[in-house]
């Protein structure tokens, strides 16, 4: 079996796809070992890799080293360049940060994901479950709240867990049509959330955290293109085919949010001139495949308007790496930016719509492994691009590694947090993001055990009814690859934590 992968470095930086090579399965394993090899070995291996005129995969990885399998010590445990305290990490330590109500919600999630039959049943029943029940049982672990004040509080609670910023998203789903969508309300609330949550929260984090100004992650506002115009699905599908006026309206709405972001950055930059990364960033979320052509066009127009050459990237677009055409799309975005003199910021995700895509067989990678390889190749390429620049001259200027996959997060951390990059100011332009309520043990491990500061959580907020589709996708996703950490182990862990609290209280 052969798998497409990109090497770490290229002879030219002009194209992502032209650098793709075909490697065998065993070469892929060596490539992984290259990334998982301890620092000294990495440097030697990397040098031999760079010296190789054909950019072949290095072969001098020590025999018998199998660092691809995490040891039980921690979800991310590898020695590769990451500073780990060496102590055994109690697997359920992360649960201590949650209150009893939240633990009960995790217990419910564990019960829903006990096995595929219970999960399928829960997914089927979910649309009929009354909102009051959803709100009482799961809303609180996946969503930041209903009001600006509640989201601010959610930010402070994240800070207590060592997570110093967030990606807030007013989640009103409309890709399947939604009569409740009022674009004016959505944009007004979004602007209020930038000025009322993101800017003050970022300022507070800068002033509260005992860290270098560049070690505080940026704050993000996620913009859902389907919320900015009535009948958005039709507008995005036909943005250049009869819906030009409505599409222009959509772009204007999104631009209002980006302007608020731009102005917040100007204000904060006056107070903290030493910061190199943006303070706050607007992120365009990716939607179902059939809507994406319009979303890509929206991203391009916003990049052009807000991401000027030699300035931080204030707008970040999303690429879904489960799409089989995503590698060439990344190359295309980079080329368009170079031709039109703007920079691009990227959030790379695997993609959340695999369960609902009609043409899954043709548009999505054939296997999970192909998606994983493509994702890891994508983040490798972007990180190299960002780290190797001197002063804001790279076309790709900012990256959010939006994933819960321990291997991908490990790969990104290993590349960014090296001794060599200790003083590289560009590293604050690479941020790792997870969804609120997902992969909390991995977020915990990154922060507490590897001391990686650039970690944020995606915090959806808004009326519970409107977040129902979002919650359904989380339920489906919980049954995918993260199942190892759900089901019975989660039930046991939350139950033990709750019992531990009860027991301590009783004995006190
Ligand atoms: C901060 C943040 C922002 C996000 N924003 C968006 C967004 O704008 N748009 C969006 O679509 N998603 C978004 N997501 C969701 C994201 O796409 C999912 O969380 C992600 O796909 C789950 O994958 P993972 O990287 O955590 O890794 P894993 O859990 O290892 O991978 C699971 C993913 O692999 C892929 N996959 C699974 N099986 C197969 C298969 N048989 N063949 C091919 N591929 C397969 C699917 O994408 C699946 O979701 C966001 C996530 C985060 C953390």
UniProtKB/TrEMBL annotation:
So what does this thing catalyse?
L-proline + a quinone = (S)-1-pyrroline-5-carboxylate + a quinol + H(+)
Molecular function as annotated in GO: FAD binding; proline dehydrogenase activity
Which parts form a coiled-coil structure per UniProt? none
Q: Does the keyword Acetylation apply?
A: no
What are the entry keywords? Answer: FAD, Flavoprotein, Oxidoreductase, Proline metabolism
Q: Which cofactor does it need?
A: FAD
Quick one: a GO biological-process term for this protein? L-proline catabolic process to L-glutamate
User: What EC number is given for this enzyme?
Assistant: 1.5.5.2
Please list the residue ranges annotated as the Proline dehydrogenase domain: 221-481
Q: From which residue to which does the signal peptide run? A: none
Which Gene Ontology cellular component annotation is one that this UniProt entry carries?
mitochondrion
* One Pfam family this sequence matches: Pro_dh
Q: What does this protein do?
A: Converts proline to delta-1-pyrroline-5-carboxylate.
* Family under the similarity heading: Belongs to the proline oxidase family.
User: What protein is this chain from?
Assistant: Proline dehydrogenase
Q: What is the lineage of its organism?
A: Eukaryota, Fungi, Dikarya, Ascomycota, Saccharomycotina
């Amino acid at each position: 079996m052969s798998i497409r992968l990109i090497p770490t470095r290229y002879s030219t930086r002009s194209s992502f796809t032209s650098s793709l090579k075909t490697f065998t399965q065993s070469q892929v394993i060596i490539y992984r070992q290259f990334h998982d090899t301890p620092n000294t070995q990495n440097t030697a291996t990397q040098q031999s890799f760079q010296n190789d005129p054909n950019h072949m995969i290095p072969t001098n990885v020590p025999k018998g080293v199998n660092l691809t399998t995490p040891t039980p010590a921690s979800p991310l445990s590898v020695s590769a360049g990451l500073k780990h305290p060496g102590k055994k990490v109690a697997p359920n330590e992360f649960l201590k940060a949650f209150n009893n109500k939240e633990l009960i919600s995790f217990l419910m999630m564990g019960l829903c994901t006990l096995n595929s039959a219970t999960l399928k049943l829960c997914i089927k029943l979910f649309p009929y479950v009354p909102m009051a029940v959803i709100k009482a049982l799961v809303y609180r672990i996946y969503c930041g709240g209903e009001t600006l004040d509640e989201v601010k509080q959610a930010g402070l609670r994240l800070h207590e867990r060592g997570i110093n910023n967030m990606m807030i998203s007013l989640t009103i789903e409309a890709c399947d049509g939604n009569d409740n969508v009022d674009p004016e309300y959505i944009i007004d609330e979004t602007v209020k959330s930038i000025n009322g949550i993101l800017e003050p929260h970022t300022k507070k984090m800068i002033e509260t955290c005992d860290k270098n100004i560049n070690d505080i992650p940026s704050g993000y506002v996620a913009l859902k293109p389907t919320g900015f115009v009535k009948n958005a699905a039709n507008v995005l599908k036909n943005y250049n085919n009869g819906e030009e006026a409505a599409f222009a309206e959509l772009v204007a709405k999104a631009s209002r949010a980006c302007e608020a972001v731009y102005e917040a950055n100007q204000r904060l930059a006056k107070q903290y001139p030493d910061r190199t990364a943006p303070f706050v960033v607007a992120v365009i979320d990716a939607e179902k495949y059939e809507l994406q052509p319009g979303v890509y066009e929206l991203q391009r127009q916003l990049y052009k308007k807000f991401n000027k050459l030699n300035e931080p990237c204030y707008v970040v677009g999303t690429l879904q790496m489960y799409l089989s055409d995503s590698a060439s799309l990344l190359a295309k975005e980079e080329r368009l930016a170079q031709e039109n003199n703007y920079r691009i910021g990227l959030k790379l995700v695997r993609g959340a719509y695999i369960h609902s895509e009609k043409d899954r067989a043709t548009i999505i990678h054939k296997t999970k492994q192909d998606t994983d390889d493509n994702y890891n190749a994508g983040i490798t390429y972007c990180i190299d691009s960002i780290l190797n620049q001197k002063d804001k001259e790279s076309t790709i200027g900012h990256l959010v590694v939006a994933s819960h996959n321990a291997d991908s997060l490990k790969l990104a951390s290993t590349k960014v947090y090296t001794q060599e990059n200790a003083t590289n100011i560009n590293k604050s332009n690479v941020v790792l993001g997870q969804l609120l309520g997902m992969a909390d043990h991995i977020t915990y491990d990154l922060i507490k055990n590897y001391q990686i500061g650039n970690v944020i959580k995606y915090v959806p907020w808004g009326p519970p009814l409107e977040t129902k589709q979002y919650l359904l996708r989380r339920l489906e996703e919980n049954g995918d690859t993260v199942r190892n950490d759900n089901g019975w182990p989660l039930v046991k862990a939350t139950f033990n934590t709750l019992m531990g609290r009860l027991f301590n209280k009783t004995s006190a």
